Amino acid sequence: MCGIVGYVGDREAAPILIDGLKRLEYRGYDSAGIAVYNSSSMTVIKSEGKIKVLEDKLGGAYPEGHIGIGHTRWATHGRPSDVNAHPHSDCSKDFIVVHNGIIENFQELKEWLESEGHHFESETDTEVVPHLIEHFYKGDLFEAVRLAVQKLEGSFAIGVISSREPDTLVVARQSSPLIVGLGKGENYIASDIPAILQHTRQVYILKDGEMAKITKNEVKITDFEGNPVSKEIFQVKWDAVAAEKGGYPHFMLKEIHEQPKALRDTMTGRLYPEKGEVKLDDIRITKEELERLRKIFIVACGTAYHAGVVGKYVIEKLTRIPVEVDLASEFRYRNPMVGEDTLVIIISQSGETADTLAALRESKELGARVLAITNVVGSSVSREADDVLYTWAGPEIAVASTKAYSTQLVALNLMALHFGKLLGTISDEEFKEMALAMKKLPEQVKAILDAEGEIKTMAERYADREHLFYIGRGLDYAVAMEGALKLKEISYIHAEAYAAGELKHGTLALITEGVPVISLVTQDHLYEKTLSNIKEVKARDAAVIALANEGDEEIKKSVDHVIYIPRTHQMLTPVLAVVPLQLFAYYAAVARGCDVDKPRNLAKSVTVE
Ligand code: G6P
């Protein structure tokens, strides 16, 4: 995920910036850069790749100057490259900007600025910001930034310096974290505490809609209207390791909690319920090409495969094109019936999984069109596919995938809506209903996370078991598979997911007194059927935990415990239902003393067969 660090004071800025960026390395990034100003010139040095590459570029001679900003980039708009790396500047090269987040309306701003004579160099959304500041600058940097941010839609944390006002750092925040670190005769900015923790523990945490003018001796905070904001100093008590995890004990828990933002980001600038529009810029497949498709294959590994199982239901329902889901390691060796009339959707968080990549190549060889859903811009999968749909989850560090899965689900829904719209297989009303429901998902996930204590208690109660079952039908079965995988991966409890109707064909033999069965009952049209299966396991004295829709009082009569999720569109329940299952696995693993972020025998990215 992108990182920001900045400094103003009497010390040399460059070493502080480079050190700060290194302390953000654990978050993952693909390029880095710094800008430093001294009394006569602004030096901007940036580079694709690791900070080491940037340091090599500096050749041991850091630019001199007492004010500067630095950035590590995790590409969203525009592939990783020297030109797309931050900081970015305007035409005059006087206004220098680093940015985290996504500027939703950058395209229209860019077109307007170009018509005003501005010239752009990069493919990024960020570059509109320095040009806007240049446009508004009338002798007051803070005021120019204030007017610029009022034009921005989307999420942003920005840091700005300028040779026109060389002792001032200006920052602004909207839906992307930003802090101001306080020193003596010096001040700092950062997107994350670890970047500046070795210098200060006193920080201002900016809220959405706030900005600050920072000199070495003063910090002035206002809202975007320019009204002063008074703020208490936050005393950081975390050590460096806890700070990297944002105060959470594990990356996995941090990433589970990042889901509302990740989901929102993945929909940013793409979904417009009222206009009936989905904009997916890197998907170029046309209506005619879609009409020629005989079949869609979804191919992936692990958690991404489970997202694909959900995708099958959604795509078939909204496009009426048959979908087959396959494990990449199986697909590539079974001479798949793929040709020019086939679309192959490849899902991969990392975009580098060896089996998935091989399946992609095999599909292309056979003449299929390949669409990739991935989280990493510039990854092998993204480079080799014909069409790409990025999840904007930010880097995932914990081995067990969480926010990548939920954003893959949202991406699949966006894609299915887009295809359904092109093909005319969904009505305007259906589109709007689903799109509006999607927009609500981030806050609904937040509501589940706010009540995590209850799931923790439940997980601790069953953490000593050696076997656990997950059952459900339809989309609930698809989510059950991911729930079981999460539990296996990190707690080492043997967990199996079963299509509820299949229990009686074998698995019921394993249900004995006290065996926990997590039963998903979010699908209204399958409710009665699943309820009968719950009764079957209850009759064998299983301990049943139901995962049900809010308002379902009936279910209480048939089970031992109920976990509720907020009501959403029936096609979207997996995005909510998976969250309690992730938390259940996490807290069970913690209770068993497992190494949650690095489970035994597993790797985050499997680049060998
Ligand atoms: C590994 C990881 C899983 C992941 C799978 C596929 O097994 O441990 O969490 O789901 O690879 O990875 P990908 O990056 O292709 O989604």
Task: Write up what this structure looks like.
The strands form five sheets. Strands 3-2-4-1-10-9-11-14 form an eight-stranded antiparallel beta sheet, with helices on one face. It starts with a strand and ends in an 18-residue tail after the last helix. The longest helix is centred in the last third of the chain and has 23 residues, at 428-450. Strand 15 (271-272) and strand 16 (277-278) form a beta hairpin. The radius of gyration is 25 Å and the shape is globular. It is built from 19 helices and 26 strands. It has 609 residues and is of the alpha/beta class. Bound molecules: 6-O-phosphono-alpha-D-glucopyranose (G6P). The site of 6-O-phosphono-alpha-D-glucopyranose (G6P) has 15 residues, from helix 10.
- DSSP helical segment count: 19
Kindly state the percentage of residues in helix: 25-40%
Rounded average pLDDT: 95
Estimate the global geometry from the Cα principal axes.
globular
Give the SSE map.
Blueprint: E1 3-8, H1 13-22, E2 31-37, E3 42-48, H2 51-58, E4 67-73, E5 88-89, E6 95-103, H3 106-115, H4 128-136, H5 141-149, E7 154-162, E8 169-174, E9 179-182, E10 187-190, E11 202-205, E12 210-214, E13 219-223, E14 234-235, H6 240-244, H7 251-257, H8 259-267, E15 271-272, E16 277-278, H9 287-291, E17 295-300, H10 302-319, E18 323-327, H11 328-331, E19 342-348, H12 354-365, E20 369-374, H13 380-384, E21 387-390, H14 403-423, H15 428-450, H16 452-462, E22 467-472, H17 475-491, E23 494-499, E24 516-521, H18 527-539, E25 543-549, E26 561-565, H19 573-591
Parallel strand pairs: 17-18, 17-19, 19-20, 20-21, 22-23, 22-24, 24-25, 25-26
Antiparallel strand pairs: 1-4, 1-10, 2-3, 2-4, 5-6, 6-7, 7-8, 8-12, 9-10, 9-11, 11-14, 12-13, 15-16
Bound molecules: 6-O-phosphono-alpha-D-glucopyranose.
